[in-house]
Amino acid sequence: MASTTLEPVEPVEVVPVRETAGTLTEALRAVRVVWRRELIRWARNRTRIITALVQPLLFLIVLGTGLADLLPKQPGSVDFKTFMFPGVLAMIVLFTAIFSAVSIVWDREFGFMREMMVAPVPRAALVVGKCLGGATVATVQGTILLVLAGVVHVPYNPLLIITLLLEMALTAFALTSFGVLVASRMEQVESFQVVMQMFVLPMFFLAGAVFPLYGLPGWLEIATRLDPLSYGVDAIRRAIYSHLHLGTTSAFTQPLTWGHTVVPVGVELGIVALVGLVMVGGAIVQFSRTD
């Protein structure tokens, strides 16, 4: 009868599990983990990085060049491509921020969301981390497009670049928060995409990205003022214009107004920030109700 020899089993190192205490430090750590996960997913998806640039480039180069030849040129004012550049920045931030929230629906379909929900961390930390991650990704995508600033006669002024980055980051945070709020109740990716398309295109076209928000019919003027993206685009545009030497004014250089009152840039950014905070609050409430 053959005898069997048991191989010695090497001891397995057990990773210690650390219990969370529910402190602010633990919540911030959860925010950092979710935020970092969003950046890793984006950095590993080169196709997403490249394809996100295609549509804004088509608008800026093809549509901008084509329409610039049709519109009357005013000496000392901006041309159409310079006017359109803030809208193109808003476009890439809008689409990247909104659709970064689709990962929530993916995570729910594949069961990863349930694992996140049972983690001993506040669900608000998961929402904030998700919003900050999506906003960071959208801002980085917009930063890539800033390379083309010189092509449309926008100077590479360090102060201007920093201002644009901050304004894009604030706008991206508000838009990502809106996407997270919608995604928090969606069960299927297809439904999320259909719903978001219903909001994204009207938001983009009403924001003054491709035409001035000046001298519009009454109903259209009201609709544009209800679009929070209008204030983000106008703040970015006015930051750019403040670094240009404009000799004359035109419809392209008119700031956003309420009636005959020019809306201050601080108020515009405050509206964008307020919308972002309201959306984050709504998303936290929705996540807290999720089973």
Please describe the topology of this protein.
Blueprint: H1 24-43, H2 46-68, H3 80-100, H4 102-109, H5 112-117, H6 123-145, H7 158-183, H8 189-206, H9 218-226, H10 228-241, E1 257-258, E2 261-262, H11 265-289
Antiparallel strand pairs: 1-2
Structural summary, described in words:
- This protein has 291 residues and is mainly alpha-helical.
- It contains eleven helices and two strands, in the order H-H-H-H-H-H-H-H-H-H-E-E-H.
- It has a two-stranded antiparallel sheet with strand order 1-2.
- A hairpin with a 2-residue loop joins strand 1 and strand 2.
- Helix 6 crosses helix 7 and helix 6 crosses helix 11.
- The longest helix is centred in the middle third of the chain and has 26 residues.
- It is elongated.
- 37% of the residues are buried.
- The model has no long low-confidence stretch (mean pLDDT 86).
